[in-house]
Amino acid sequence: MKANMWNIFIIVWMFWSAAFSSDISIRQITFDNDSHLLGPYNPWSPDDEWIVYTCGPNHLNDVVKRTHVKSGRNEVLFAITNQTEFGPGCGTASYGENGSVIFIYGPHNASAERKYEFWRRSAMIVNKTGTAFIPDARDIIAPFSAGALRGGTHCHQFSKDGQRIAFTYNDMLVSPDLRTVGVSVAGRQITVDEHPENHNGKWFSLLLVPVKENPVPGSGELSRAYENCWVEWPDGRRAIAFKGNHIATDGTSVTDIFLVDVPEKIEPQNSGRPLAGTETELPFPPAGAAVRELTDFSKPGLLKITARPRFWLSSTPDGSAVFFQAEDTAGINQIYSVKTGSGEVSQITAHEADVFGTVSVHASGKKIAYLCDGSVFVTYLSAGGSERLTAKEEYNPAFVYWSHGDQLVFGNRSAAGAPVQLFMIDLFPPATVIPRSRFDKSGWGARHETILKEIENKPELIFVGDSITERWYSAGKTVWDRYYKPLNAANLGVGGDGTQHVLWRLKNGELDRISPKAAVVMIGTNNSNGDTHTAEEIADGIIAVVSELRARIPETKILLLSIFPRGTFAQREQLPAPAEYNDQRRKNEEASRIAAEMADGKHVFYLDINSELVDRKNRVTPEIMPDLVHLSSAGYEIWAKAMNPVLGKLMGTKRLP
User: Fold this and answer.
1) For the chain, how long is the longest CA-to-CA vector?
2) pLDDT along the chain (657 residues), means of 10
3) pLDDT score for 617
4) Domain co-membership, 402 together with 522
5) Main-chain dihedrals φ then ψ at residue 359, nearest 5 degrees
6) Nearest-CA neighbor of 503 among 538, 544, 559, 534?
7) Could you confirm whether 481 is annotated as catalytic?
8) Which residue among the candidates 253, 467, 515, 633 is catalytic per the annotation?
9) Strand segments (E) across 454-603
10) Are residues 509 and 458 both part of a single domain?
11) 630 a catalytic residue
12) Do 422 and 450 reside in the same domain of the chain?
């Protein structure tokens, strides 16, 4: 079953890459068997280097992880050590701009009597130093503590300054099915009486929106407030936008978009009613938490806000508009916006298929990303045009989110039951990661066809690279025949190739229907010629190549080699003089160092043999590299002997010395 799912994934990925590879890059960044579950809010770290998510065997996830976008390295931020079928459980992790991570955390002492429920959960924060704490206190014993809650909080979102948390809430004591919106404010620790259902909190928490089980028709009373987002204006004012359910005068249920102001200062005494609530009443909002309706869809023939598929509201960075979804006149789910000042509603998209999931707003406020027709789309708000970024998938992608720049992350699965993996889209990638063919170069296409024939033998070992790799079949043939031919090895090297050309070849047949035990990768030296590419851009290309290998041949161990030392073009004109250390070598070493971060010791392994290829004065010599770039037969012997002990372990063979 596992192999079949990966085969399906490979077929889908091939179609995807072939159709959508011209000006953007799409790269898989997670590969393990965990389901990498994104929440409804921002998963990007403030520096855009990490993606945070939860994972686990079922909806009661037990680990909060983050993945380094460039290297694919995983780190556990929080792990539940006492997980049971009843909880605690965790979920919907997101980052704040202060670098803290927040997520749902179930009852720490979960049992059959105290299992995870909507009304029995809280927030957990892991700050930049790795310290974990619960911000929202819980107190179910009267008289209740101001600043504590009596139920469960859900889908937490930091304000921009990281000093407030918006959440949805279900009360344990009064009408647990009612959902409303609240806020936690930093700076005031709440201590409550000991009880199995109670816990202390480091922040002051309260509800903002009153809700009732049976609102009076036409009164504006709400039965539900939910799926909210922060709205923050440049002048410092804050509000929370939310969906609100109420009953129209004709008795029909209506959903509209509302705003509730979040007071700058909140004191327990300033509401006139108990913030903590009573045994028969929900906690009361503070003074200044004014609720106003942004839309009014209560009249027949007006928009109907989408109930399914579920989505959360999102706002522009300047707080001027809130995005939501509703059916158009054809019954298709589209994106709309409502201005927070005037309440003016505008239709944003006009797709022929339903939009689904939460809209992600770019940091500029000028474009949005979302899911539609099994794909990731971007719509440019000023121009009004929409662009499909990924091919249509049978299994709908999960949430999609902008970074602080022009990258997107989204989740996708290859088949039913397969784990959700995370992918990154870069709208303006360096040339080193954009797949490019070289059919305009004499012999390149023929060499590609030769490789396609060679892999029909189902190689157990492949070498991926440029002319240095290709010349295993000429200058290195004696060494190749001795060590690697008996292992059914295939040479996927093509002279003149950079990382972008290797990517094209890997995406166009050179990995089809093979699953070698190991792959040796040495690529990047051609990208370092001149000043076209920086070390980081070269590293991005190497990382893209390794990621492609991981995605297409997931069972293969990858041995990534540092870019070999070389002479510059100017030094090559001075032959037979050896090449002193130079800036091009320095750039390649830096690129290799960055790419080496992909090595996890499980799937990707890194080896630097460069010291074996230079003399005692750290110079490239013509005895090892006759043209100061390509290896002699002696050079290939050095390469093999330095690499074989590691490669033998990866291959699981004793035939390599």
Assistant:
1) 94
2) 35 38 83 90 97 86 95 95 93 96 95 94 96 97 95 97 97 95 96 96 97 94 97 97 95 96 78 85 93 92 88 97 95 96 96 95 97 96 91 85 96 80 95 96 97 97 98 98 96 98 97 97 97 96 97 97 97 95 97 96 97 97 97 98 96 74
3) 97
4) no
5) -75, 135
6) 544
7) no
8) 467
9) 461-465, 489-493, 518-522, 557-561
10) yes
11) yes
12) no
Q: Which residues pair with 356 in a beta bridge?
A: 371
- Is the CA virtual torsion 638, 641, 646, 650 positive or negative? positive
Render 102-148 in DSSP notation, one character per residue: EEEE--TT--SSS--BTTB-EEEEE-TTS-EE--B-B--SSSPPTT-
Q: What is the pLDDT of residue 17?
A: 39
Q: What pTM value is reported for the model?
A: 0.90
467 in active site:
yes
- Residue 10 pLDDT: 35
Residue with token string 């080896």: 607
| Contact predicate 147/268, CB 8 Å | yes
The answer to whether residues 408 and 491 belong to one domain is no
Contact 627, 575 (CB under 8 A): yes
Contact 119/170 with Cβ under 8 angstroms?
yes
Give long-range contacts, CB 8 A cutoff, 24+ apart: 323-328. 323/348, 323/359, 323/361, 323/368, 324/243, 324/257, 325/355, 325/359, 326/297, 327/303
Task: Identify whether the C-beta of residue 468 lies closer than 8 Å to the C-beta of residue 630.
Answer: yes
Q: Given 205, 256, 630, 632, which residue is catalytic? A: 630
Pair 600, 545: CB distance under 8 Å: no
pLDDT at 268: 62
Structure tokens at 634: 């002696």
Angle between helices 2-19 and 535-552 (to 10 degrees): 140
Phi, psi of 377 (to 5 degrees): -120, 155
Is the Cβ–Cβ distance between 230 and 184 less than 8 Å?
no
The span from the CA of 521 to the CA of 473, in Å, is 16
Q: Evaluate whether residue 399 is within a structural domain.
A: yes
Counting the structural domains of the chain, the total is 2
What is the Rg, in whole angstroms, of the alpha carbon atoms belonging to the chain?
A: 29
Q: Which tokens hold the place of 520? A: 């040796």
What secondary structure does DSSP assign to 498-511, as a single string? -HHHHHHHHHTTTT
**Considering the domain boundaries, does residue 646 fall inside one?**
yes
pLDDT value, residue 35: 86
> Exposure pattern of 137-172 as b/e (b: 16+ CB <10 Å)?
bbbbeeebbbbbbbbbbbbbbbbeebebbbbbbbbb
Q: Do 412 and 452 belong together in one domain?
A: no
Give the residue from 428, 462, 485 where a domain finishes.
428
In a domain, 105, yes or no: no
Give the integer Cα–Cα distance in Å for 209 and 282.
10
Q: What is the pLDDT of residue 499?
A: 98
**Domain span holding position 415:** 1-30+313-428
- Owner of token pair 């590299």: 625
C-alpha span between 215 and 200 (Å, rounded): 33
Predicted local distance difference test score (pLDDT) of residue 373: 94
User: Could you tell me how many residues make up the chain?
Assistant: 657
DSSP state of 212: -
Clarify whether residues 608 and 478 are in a common domain.
Answer: yes
Beta-bridged to residue 336, according to DSSP, are 324, 347
Residues 6+ apart with CB under 8 A from 481: none
Euclidean distance between CA atoms 549 and 542, whole angstroms: 11
User: Are 360 and 492 in a shared domain?
Assistant: no
